[in-house]
Amino acid sequence: MMLAGLFLLAGIAMAQTKVTGTVVSYEDNEPIIGATIQAVGQASIGTITDYDGNFTLEVPEGVKTLKITYVGMEPLEVAVSTKTLKIQLKNDSQILDEVVVVAYGTQKKTSLTGSIQEVKSEAIEMRPVSSVASALEGTVSGVQVNSTYGAPGQDPSIRIRGVGTVNGSTSPLYVLDGVPFGGNISDLNPQDIESMSILKDAASAALYGNRASNGVILITTKKGKQGKLNVSLDIKQGTYSRGIKEYKRLGVRDWMNMEWQNLKNYAMSSSGYDLAKAEAYANQNLIDDRLILNIFNKDNDKLFENGKLVADAQILGTYGEDLDWYDQAVRVGYRQEYNFMANGASDKADYLISLGYLDENGYLRNSGFDRISARMSANIQPKAWFKAGLNVSGTHQNFTNTNGDSSSSYTNVFNYGRNIAPIYPVHLHDVTTGDYVRDAQGHLTYDPGYYTDANGNEQMTRNQYPDRHVIWENEMNSDKTIRNTLNGIAYANLILPYGFTFMLKGSLNLRHSDNTKYYSGVIGDAKGVNGRSTRTNYRYKDYNFQQQLHWVHEFGVHSLDALVGHENYAWNRNYLSGNKYDETSEGKVQWLNFNTIQSLEDFQDNYRTESYLGRIRYGYDSKYNAEVSFRRDGSSRFSKSARWGNFWSCGANWVVTYEEFMKKFTWVDYLKLRADYGEVANDSGAGYYAYMALSSLERNNNSGAYVISQFANNDLLWETGQSWGIGLEARMFNRWNLNIDYFNRRNKDLIFDVYNPLSAGATNTEVAESTTTMNLGVISNQGLEISTDIDVFKNKDWKINLSASATYQTNKVVKLPEQNKDGIINGTKKIVEGKSMYMFYVNTWEGIDTYNGYSLYTFDDEKYYFEADGVTYGNTAGTKISGTNLNYVVVIDGVPYTYRPSTYGKKEFHGSALPDLFGSFGANVSWKSLTFNALFTYQLGGKVMDSNYQTLMSVSTTPSSLHQDVLNSWTTDDATAEHAIDRNGTPVVDRGLSTYLNAASSRWLTSASYLVLKNLSLTYKLPKSLTDKADIEGATVSLSCENLFTLTKRQGLNPQQTFNGTQSNSLVTPRVFSIGLNIKF
Amino acid sequence: MKKYIFIVGIASLVGLSSCSESYLDTEPQSSVSTPSTVESIVNAEHAINGLCKIMTTPYISQGFNGEGTIKTYYGNYPGNDFQKCAYTGYSNVINGTYHTSKTSVYLYYPWFYYYKLIGNANVIIANIDNAEGTNKADANQTMRERAFIKAQALTFRAYAFSQLVQLYSYRWSDSNNGATDGIVLRTDESHGDIALSTLAESYQQIYADLDEAIALFQKSGMDRKKNEFYKPNLNVAYAVYARAALNREDWANAAKYAALARAGVSLMTNDQYADGMHTANNEWIWGVYEAEDQSLGYFAFFAYQGSNSSSSVCRTYPCAISRELIDQIPATDVRRKLYLIPTEAELKECNSAGRSTKTLYKRAFSEYGDRLYETSYVYVYMQFKFLAAFMPGGGSFSLIRGAEMYYVEAEADCHLGKDAEAQQLLFEANKDRDAALVKSEKTGDDLLAEVRLYRRFDLWGEGFDWFDYKRWGLPISRKALSKGGSFHTTFAKTIQPDAENNWTWMLPNMETDYNELID
């Protein structure tokens, strides 16, 4: 009763005025849909314009003014009137003056002096990606993103403005809501992200000191928004499939012919048979000695005539349908994602809750990822001088892993499936009929490489991967990781007099990752030990604590803003791992089921930093802006004497369009020039205790054992990056945006694991290397980044926007220390002064010798010499080649060559792995409520050492699949009487010599240029008439596809696999189709 | 009020500003500082145990296990009397064609492994004289403890050097009295460039290390603990000396030190000989330790050589002795029982590679069932001498055993013209194995050939094969099964002493690329 009375009172008190009107654009008079009309002084009263730009609003007495706002338009205030209002909103020429998240704060975009690019939630939400970092590909210039590893839940690798390190991590520093983030990016639900700021230059990143030289990515999560309660539900459903085709490999018949050639040639070269005897040998022994399995309906020695598989040889029984291993290992996976979010805010508090569930089944049968995530964020301001907030998120993630990056592993589908000879079936067949062998229940059985014959004897069915079976093993084995994360950030601001604000901020990030691998005792690696279970457990804890004092002051046209702060960061990891074997009950994966302990160990690592920082920003009339920042950083990775470093930056800009003299150039809407310089560092190239001389703790006969694992270097320092840049930002004709940036970045004191002679004693057990970690050398990266977009056409219904970006980048090693002046050989590359760090340095393949079909390589005429027909070739100060070793060199047309590249070959430079140009282009077309978006990414130039192709072109001691190009091989029919060179030839197929014929050389370097249709999407906003009926605020339907196609020089090649131009048998790019529905309540 | 807040704010900023000085000092948990490993005798004993552990550690990729790999890939596979049946996938190793492939793992592995041993030994040798004793008050005891550990480290280093010269330098007889290239003699804690020494200088260093080790062992008056067969003692130093001298064709020293090395060592009983070669006994002068709780899994020595091993490389490709060798050994020798010798009929049933699936297969499982894995393939002349102690293929194995020292002395005696002594040694080494054995009355080259024959047979599979043939300058001559031998056609080859770079591995790129003093 009392309540009713109160309402009545309120009703009487509030006499209403009805205001109606239309909001249109000043520029084209088109109606503006969704503009906000709000009563000034009473924030809760407001409405938005409808499809025709019309609105109606009841305003209470006392409200005199309405405020009309729309994104990208200048806000306008109008007096309340009973007449129908016609309101024109002007395009906001200061559209770029949004607020951007920067290091330790925010800043107006116009006042930025460094190169910062921002990616907003709109660019993220539509993408069906599990890691938010994937959304950066193609959207930010100067940033390379490789997100082609086709296992669900994996983070892409990212490089910002080239590579300024050799040993160190090349990943940027991630900062989540102002706190360095030690977790995995896939711990974050992309839907929770409000924006990502990419700090590309040293000036922007300098406040992150010795972890900033790879650039910094600031991730800001969503907060509660002023206004009423916003609730949304987002659902995506889709497929997950293989996005790159396989290399072109030989089919069964061609392959058989090449194998016959192989054996014949081998008989000639290794046993000295003549042609006839060698052919007879190949006819006789191809199956018995090499292939073992004969899948044809001819006797083993009746398969070949004149070097060709006889025409009437037919594949027996069901062998034919059972030879494609990929077919049976790859599937179309399913992807589903659900997100729910609610947020709201009042004057004194805001809140947000978010829930997400993602389930991705990969394109390999045994790969998957699911994630449940939740986030809660709340901010309060109970008093004008006090503000505080808490942002907590947690995830539970399940990975069903697949072995996809261990290039030579038998459980890696892309190794086994690619390289298994095309005659070996997945399932067991009766060798005489070729029909499937079924078990007692009538099921097919897998072929382990042998069968048991009637006499109880094992008979081999394949001379490749004995006892290994990728499909069967992956079915029997399991490899699962559970990751739980909890991340909390809390802060309190004291808003003090005279423009001071004091902030305390702390974060705690806990992660726990628990992996259980089970290897079956039935087939595969653990068969010999009757099954094995490995448990690997990582427990991470990192925390950060910050104190910041900010001061903001404005007087006249001057604005000043200063910051001093202190910060410390601690990272701790506990690693626990063990493995047991000999299972009691088949298929039970946990340790209880195993009887023998093979290993059990755990240990911790700690990493800490402490920093003091400061910054001053100054602005004059918004026209001129300048800033200086400083940070003093200490890192636990270095010795006491070398631990602390100072980093700083400065920058300035000039907003030209604010000048009087620019007023006459009305077509220039906005023009800004900026320049910056900064010094930052990277300590990640050094191990956690990199300066110490260390011996590892081992055990032998139950007693301790020490083995040297690291050499000392007390002077070890971080790598310093010095960079400067200039930039131009412009908007013209009110439709064309252009950004140009030049940067020049030098990284000095590079941290290298410098090779000692191996006789200094290896510091590693997995590779034969003796290294000392040292600072040496200077590397420089410079480049030009251009990004632009233009509204080609715009009217009430249509909007067509085209965009493109390109980055031209060079890399050069400027200086190496005295002891390494001759360069440092690093695998297939060599680091020398004056050249790119990624220059391939390998033997030069010259062609083939048509006399014998052997590969010819450039002879090392500096280290060796030999005499032939009275002439001396090479350097007589070097080593003389004599005796049988003379067989490894040959002279053709007066030029010496060698057949043995690793012995007498000369290594030379053969181009860089880095691209000349990379970037993206795209189109955004909208018509009424329908929006179409296409994004392409590309790279031009650069080389890849295609070792996968090399393997497919080589024949080894056991059979394996071959590339179609093997068909061009030299045969004895092509033999010339004299030594001669064919520069485009393919060497003879001979398993005894293949190591030399197909050695790592310039022959395998392939163009790394590519074009990828990264994303294609179509969205449709349902008409309001429909959503009103359903009592919802809005609904959007979308269709999206990631990685629709990839164009490369050679089918099968994935140039995006690594940044350094290597290739391995690795999971290829996934293609994701997704259909989405977003509902706002 | 606001002023108060201001003051509190500033105060807390200052108060919370800095962390304690030790905040940035972090210590690893999985390792210790290297200098501390030689600070005291107690720690240095662990460093010596580290040297032993280096000999039994998984390296690089499957198959590389420290010392066992030297036996498998360098001694056995490329030898004259050993066959990894039908293992054609390894034909390049078996036929010795990698000697000039400077980037091949087979070329650089021994260099990598032995210099790891040397580098660790050098730290001990350089610093042990300052180590704190177990009883600080007793200076004499401390001196003796230091001497013992230094002697052990010196023995390791000498052993590693002597193995390296056999692989990476010409055989002594081709060296023009040691004038050809030797190895890198790194004897301090340096990590930089060092020029190659000559072969003669290399042997001088080996001798010098062993002279010092012997003197220190004697000075220490200490011995290893009873179960520590994997650590060096005085006998080991003598034995390494005898081997090095034999390789250097320094016959007098070879004979002298071989005799010293076997003092107090008794030969195995026949039962022990047949026990599988995986458990230490009185005859083992030095060995390598491996147990189930530190198993190397598929990396281990017996996972390549145990007839009962469950590894596929053992089950599918068993190890076999050459028919030509075993045919020269009298039927009364009990060691012949450790090989599957076929009858003519059984031989005929086999396929061209020597695999049996019929009578011989059945006989193998009935007579040697406990020495075979249930799904093992059966080949003629396959061995049952080496058995894994645990699966998939683990167990300790000997590096130097007493019998070898008999053969070293006998061989040296032959060269010294001491035929009677050689005959006696040969007889002593074999008399328990063959009840019908009579002492050889051969002399000169015939006697030398007989000493070599029994050495080959007795030590078969223990990693001597290729090394012996290189040292002797004899060709490897393997006959195919169809030609009266027992080898797969792929391995049926004659390899002359001057072929394949004189059986000498070139220096790896990992050395020459980073050592400016070597071309």
Most extensive chain-chain interface: A-B, 102 and 116 residues
Low-confidence stretches of chain A: 1-14
General form of chain B:
globular
Helical content band of chain B: 40-55%
Our estimate of the beta-strand percent of chain A is over 45%
Distance between the termini of chain A: 32 Å
Largest sheet of chain A: 22 strands, antiparallel, barrel
Using brief descriptors, characterize the structure shown.
heterodimer, A: 1081 residues, mainly beta, 22-stranded antiparallel barrel, 12 helices, globular, disordered N terminus, B: 519 residues, mainly alpha, two-stranded antiparallel ribbon, two-stranded antiparallel sheet, 21 helices, 7% strand
Tell me what you see in this structure.
The complex is a heterodimer of chains A (1081) and B (519). By secondary structure, chain A is mainly beta. In chain A, 9% of the residues lie in helices and 48% in strands. Chain A contains 12 helices and 61 strands. The radius of gyration of chain A is 34 Å and the shape is globular. In chain A, 48% of the residues are buried. Chain B is mostly helical. Helix content of chain B is 45%, strand content 7%. Chain B has 21 helices and 11 strands. Chain B has helices at 2-15, 41-54, 67-76, 91-94, 105-127, 139-168, 199-220, 234-247, 251-261, 270-273, 302-305, 312-315, 323-326, 344-349, 359-368, 402-416, 419-430, 444-458, 465-472, 499-503, 509-512; strands at 31-33, 56-59, 64-66, 82-84, 284-288, 319-321, 355-356, 378-379, 397-401, 476-477, 494-495. Chain B has a two-stranded antiparallel ribbon with strand order 2-3. In chain B, β2 and β3 form a beta hairpin. In chain B, α5 (105-127) runs antiparallel to α6 (139-168) and α8 crosses α16 (402-416). Chains A and B meet through α5, β25, β27, β28 and β30 of A and α1, β1, α2, β2 and α5 of B.
